[in-house]
Design goal:
This protein has helices at residues 3-6, 12-21, 25-29, 78-94, 116-134, 145-157, 162-169, 174-181, 186-204; strands at residues 36-37, 42-45, 48-53, 59-64, 72-75. It is mainly alpha-helical and 205 residues long. The strands form two sheets. It has a three-stranded antiparallel sheet with strand order 1-2-5, with no helix packed on it. A two-stranded antiparallel ribbon has the order 3-4. The longest helix is centred in the middle third of the chain and has 19 residues, at 116-134.
């Protein structure tokens, strides 16, 4: 999001983390500092936070296994890693408990897990503010889940193998990834055909 809106948005770290890793909302909310390997530049997705609504008895946030049912490791780029380090340091100045290994990276100020639906609403508010600052014609109305789609689409368009993207997203198979992102593949198919043709031409000369 635009720098003019970032200063007043405490969750800019969250939006950055989601778009740079492709994690699902619940996975990011359930990420703990102990899951972040600063030395190895990677994080482990071991759990997910979901809202369970009980008839006539309100709702509760349950932290359980990720959607795929199994943990995965996601490598993190240097800029995202530096942002996480800065966030951890800032959290530690607020309260030492917020920087402990068992504390959620995106925790509320009291260390509890954030409410997933309220978290999504915060993103909508951030997008509205960014559109107002930038001009509505320069930024589309996007949903929180679109950060995950952006991550996958950019990697596929850059030529990252589908299997690698699938593993980062935590899909059960590369076929699921292909089914969802087939719309970004046609241009890549044409490029692959052109490269193959060039290889054949080069081999014949």
């Amino acid at each position: 999001l635009d720098q003019r809106t970032q200063a007043g948005d405490e969750l800019v770290i969250a939006w950055s983390l989601l778009v740079s890793t492709g994690m699902r909302r619940g996975e990011a909310l359930a990420l703990r500092w102990g899951d972040v390997d600063f030395e190895g530049s990677r994080l482990s997705v071991r759990r997910s936070a979901t809202v369970i609504k009980h008839k006539g008895a309100g709702e509760e946030i349950i932290v359980g296994p990720p959607k795929s049912g199994k943990a995965r490791t996601v490598d993190v780029d240097p800029q995202t890693l530096a942002t996480l380090k800065a966030h951890k340091a800032a959290q530690g100045t607020l309260a030492l408990a917020l920087a402990r290994d068992d504390t959620y990276v995106l925790a509320n100020f009291d260390g509890s897990v954030r409410h997933p639906e309220r978290f999504s609403r915060r993103f909508v508010t951030a997008v509205v503010a960014a559109r107002k600052a930038l001009g509505e014609d320069r930024l589309s109305r996007i949903r929180l889940h679109d950060l995950r789609h952006t991550h996958a689409s950019l990697l596929l368009a850059a030529g990252v193998p589908v299997k690698v993207v699938s593993e980062r997203l935590g899909h059960a198979s590369a076929m699921i990834t292909l089914g969802i992102y087939a719309h970004v593949m046609p241009g890549m198919q044409a490029e692959a055909a052109a490269k193959f043709g060039a290889l054949l031409s080069g081999g014949a000369s």
